Amino acid sequence: METLSFQFPAGQPGRGRALVGCVGSGDLEVLLEPGQPGTLTIQVQTSVNGSAARWQHLFERMFDGQLPPALLIDIHDFGATPGVVRLRLEQGFEEIGHD
């Protein structure tokens, strides 16, 4: 088990909270809640040790050229593929009303 932390520039806090996915399914779950203005904070708990660079690149691609809402995001991963991670994050953003 490994815990990773990431921060990115962000706008104003997101609206509301969301929970998407289910870690027990062999997938991952993503919890989103409002954060501090100007900062998107992501914490990843993953069963895949040594994957920090993969997570960093995935987040950089997702947020390149846009200013996401200020959120605290907790990800509980059980070996999900990058495509599934992106899908769950997009579902979470949709639930809190950010496109």
UniProtKB/TrEMBL annotation:
Post-translational modification: Covalently binds the prosthetic group of malonate decarboxylase.
Signal sequence, renumbered to the chain: none
One Pfam family it belongs to: ACP
Keyword Membrane: no
Protein keywords: Cytoplasm, Phosphoprotein
Record GO cellular component, one term: cytoplasm
Record's keyword annotation contains Cytoplasm: yes
Annotated GO MF terms: acyl carrier activity
O-(phosphoribosyl dephospho-coenzyme A)serine found at: S25
Subcellular localization, as worded in the UniProt entry: Cytoplasm
Family annotation (InterPro entries): Mal_deCO2ase/Cit_lyase_ACP, Malonate_deCO2ase_dsu
Membrane spanning stretches: none
Family assignment from sequence similarity: Belongs to the MdcC family.
Biological role: Subunit of malonate decarboxylase, it is an acyl carrier protein to which acetyl and malonyl thioester residues are bound via a 2'-(5''-phosphoribosyl)-3'-dephospho-CoA prosthetic group and turn over during the catalytic mechanism.
Name of protein: Malonate decarboxylase acyl carrier protein
Organism: Pseudomonas protegens
Gene, per the UniProt record: mdcC
